[in-house]
Amino acid sequence: MTTSAQSDGANTFNNTSGESFSAEKYFATQPPPPSLEQDVARVKDFLQKQLQERRKVVLVTSGGTTVPLELNVVRFLDNFSAGTRGATSAEYFLKAGYAVIFMHRQFSLQPFSRHYSHSTHPFLDFLDINEPSGSSAPSFGDIAVRPEERAQLLEVLSTYKAVQRAGTLLTLTFVTVNDYLWLLRAVSQEMSLLGRNCLYYLAAAVSDFFLPRQKMSVHKIQSGKGSLHIEMDQVPKILKPLVAEWTREGFIVSFKLETDEDLLVPKARQALARYGHQVVIGNELHRRKFEVVFVSPKSASPPSASPALSTEIAEPPSADYEETWLTIDLEQNPEKEIEEDIVAELVRRHARWIDNATRNV
Ligand code: PMT
């Protein structure tokens, strides 16, 4: 533990200056989550089944990762994301015939149950108790779904049951950025078995900074020492080994969230130039429910990744990339979900990409 009470009365964590971890160094020094082996066994079984049944598989990551500040965690930093994008998209991928590995932040929204979220549409509010005749207490037989809720419930429930019967949805959970990184590496290595038939849809909001285990306080940080100073290390950019090593053939879609819309396209191009994957979907925080931009390389085979590029690379040539804006009109159609169109577009692009690769063999 590297906490020290400074002479100015402040708590200081991680006395060394912040480091930038390579992926190798990260996995060599940070321990795997205890559930990893069990999760990998479930993923192997799931993928075997999908291979036999010749389904395409998509990995959807969803929700925000946390960064614990103590080993016995009381406090942590969190990343913004309710998990709406991931949970909604997972449903549309299932509808399009994909099998889905849904890797999500514990307690964030999930496919199907998201329609009955405790904050926007609480479960108990759509049930009624039919008053029993006489003085007897109500029984289970008296519980009824409100008439105005029935059509939607029936639709959601029957799709959910059909997915369960088909065995096309596997749910995995993460909390910390460490859980996320270990799980993403393990799942993508397993998925590489499927070659071009797998798609990666990286919608999770992943922490950029973390406290290595070796530098964390064991116990709850005490408040009696004045202000708190924490210096964090940089989380390795995981897209780099994902594209270059773990899953060379997968169709990889990453997301870019910005609050300044003017940065969306340049940042997306930078990511494509740096990692060499297939699509970046840019979304501005306040417009993300009705507008996104797809940015992708123009040529069918993307320019290969540029490992030498520094974080502050100059903007790559715009002629190498194309943008497709996708907008929906929520005033005209308030029930419409933009994920339906995002997924439809990706399903088309993935199929075209597989076709092109097959033709070029
Ligand atoms: O869940 P909602 O409330 O609906 O919100 C959805 C969303 C806005 C969170 C989602 O649409 C979104 O944009 N997710 C990505 C958030 C983001 O911009 O993350 P980033 O800039 O930290 O990372 C960009 C990409 O790099 C991501 O695809 C991420 O998987 C990847 N990354 C991030 C960190 C890291 N260390 N390594 C990475 O590879």
From TrEMBL:
<feature type="domain" description="DNA/pantothenate metabolism flavoprotein C-terminal">
    <location>
        <begin position="199"/>
        <end position="288"/>
    </location>
</feature>
<comment type="similarity">
    <text>Belongs to the PPC synthetase family.</text>
</comment>
<protein>
    <submittedName>
        <fullName>Phosphopantothenate-cysteine ligase</fullName>
    </submittedName>
</protein>
<dbReference type="GO" id="GO:0015937">
    <property type="term" value="P:coenzyme A biosynthetic process"/>
</dbReference>
<feature type="compositionally biased region" description="Polar residues">
    <location>
        <begin position="1"/>
        <end position="20"/>
    </location>
</feature>
<dbReference type="Pfam" id="PF04127">
    <property type="entry name" value="DFP"/>
</dbReference>
<feature type="domain" description="DNA/pantothenate metabolism flavoprotein C-terminal">
    <location>
        <begin position="56"/>
        <end position="111"/>
    </location>
</feature>
<feature type="region of interest" description="Disordered">
    <location>
        <begin position="1"/>
        <end position="35"/>
    </location>
</feature>
<keyword id="KW-0436">Ligase</keyword>
<dbReference type="GO" id="GO:0016874">
    <property type="term" value="F:ligase activity"/>
</dbReference>
<dbReference type="InterPro" id="IPR007085">
    <property type="entry name" value="DNA/pantothenate-metab_flavo_C"/>
</dbReference>
<dbReference type="InterPro" id="IPR035929">
    <property type="entry name" value="CoaB-like_sf"/>
</dbReference>
